[in-house]
Amino acid sequence: MIVVERASRTAARLLGLLLLGLTCVAAFGPAEAELRIDVYSPNPPEPMPIAVPSFSGTGSDQSRGQEVASVIAADLERSGLFRIVDPNAYIQDPQSLMSGPRFADWRIINAEALVSGSVQTQSDGRLRAEFRLWDVIAETEAAGQAYQTEPENWRRIAHIIADQIYERVTGESGFFDTRIVYVSESGPATERVKRLAIMDQDGANHRYLTNGDTLVLTPRFSPTTQEITFLAYYDNRPRVYLFNIDTGQRELLGDFPSMTFAPRFSPDGNSVIMSQAQDGNSDIYVMDLRTRSSRRLTTDPGIDTSPSYSPDGTQIVFESDRGGSQQLYVMGAGGGGAQRISFGPGRYGSPVWSPRGDLIAFTHLSGGQFAIGVMRPDGSGERILAQAYHMEGPTWAPNGRLIMYFSEGSTGQGRSARLHVVGIDGRTSWTVPTPLDGSDPAWSSLLP
Amino acid sequence: MRLKVFPLFAAVLLLVACGSSEETVTTGGGGTVVTPSTGGPRAGTIEDFQVNVGDRVFFALDSSELSGEARSTLDRQAAWLNQYPQAQLRIEGHCDERGTREYNLALGDRRANAVRNYLVAQGISASRLDTISYGKERPAVVGSNESSWAQNRRGVSVITSGAPIN
Question: From edge to edge, which strands make up the β-sheet containing A402-411?
């Protein structure tokens, strides 16, 4: 459990709130206007130069203070919105920083923002960490918070602090205190071993959820992030399953006579939408997780699959070849009235509605190439964000600003598959480290 | 996490056991099938089905239509299945890598059912035929070229019981 010591928007989603007498956050007046990145600007601004010195700590806490600062710095830099000022240039040391920044020392190295903080192991063994975000130009404190947690949660504290900074500067919620569930791959292409695996958004705390005996595909998080739904070939019967990450319990979802696949949770977490393939015809069904009753939403003889809800739960985007080739359609959550939204050359698949509701991410296949792109829910504004022979499977960061996907390619030794992230504004991209090959990523909501 | 035993392994072991006992009978002089002098597969075996009948048919890109060649392969499969009425089939539908994962699962299901429906139309009881789609998860050959893709877009009839391996 992580205890937050000052009320904030983040605190609302954390357990056990404690107030603590940190000095007051400076008035959110002119300073707020200055320490601000407009993520919607059509002309992306230069990344904001920010200094993130080691958090101060004594004894064994000293190295933890360095680690916390480096996790925060790596998060902020990857977002593409910040540039970390070279730590070798820092003049003021972390210890003296605790009694307040000497702003001139930070202005001279061109830092516009500064993060200071400390970590301390308390007598009960818990770790206490606090941070402050400083506007170096206005010489004001822009944000601050303290947390207490079990020592092993230190990376989460760092991610939560990075989210706080991101939120304060952009006005958007962050995406750092999140996890990725994906399919870890190994072995030759003809006998690929696939295992579910889970890790933090930055690749840390990696662990496997299945042992590789059975083919598993397309894991997706519930909104609570405690459960996933996925496709598995247990007993040679490809079916959709639920899996509880905390307990390791696996449950067959429904009693369908034939293959079920392409599952996704509804935004409220109360149902799972998926396809059933019966006698060569795939249609979309929704199953209520409380009553376990299912309802068929499409009836045409074509392939209807890869359904994804709009964040308000009223609409579903899916792919269908009812018009002759694989294209994207939007229909009401009750089924019926499907309208085609993709009209470019080639085929469109694996649509995923952004958590913000403004965009739909998809895989595009054209001219022997795969691409990841976005379009508005009415099909306008189509943009391609990444392209290669083979890439697919987009998943949204919870703030709708980034998309993760996977790409496959041949190497000298055989096949390789990697998870990548691209910002929808094209300002940033990176590869997520995985121990083995990785595919079918799913990005969680911010952790509760 | 506990996982169930993979029943495929059990089925294979069973077949191996059957095969070896049949083999014993044959070498004891009780065999009813004459093995060709060339040393080819013994009739009525899984090997016979794979080698002399043909266990797979191929599809065009993004299609589940049976070609003339595919139909003649399936005609031979139907004749063989009529001759060996104990044999049970699992028909696997496969795709090449040039499609998205979930679409290919649906396409593989379509292909497996195209094979199944043809065999049923040739008089094979539907109760002997099971289908499974692997999408693009189990390519027959590795490679990103026309020849590999063509071999991977396939329907494979796998005998799961009712016939010895060889």
Answer: A391-396, A402-411, A414-423, A429-432
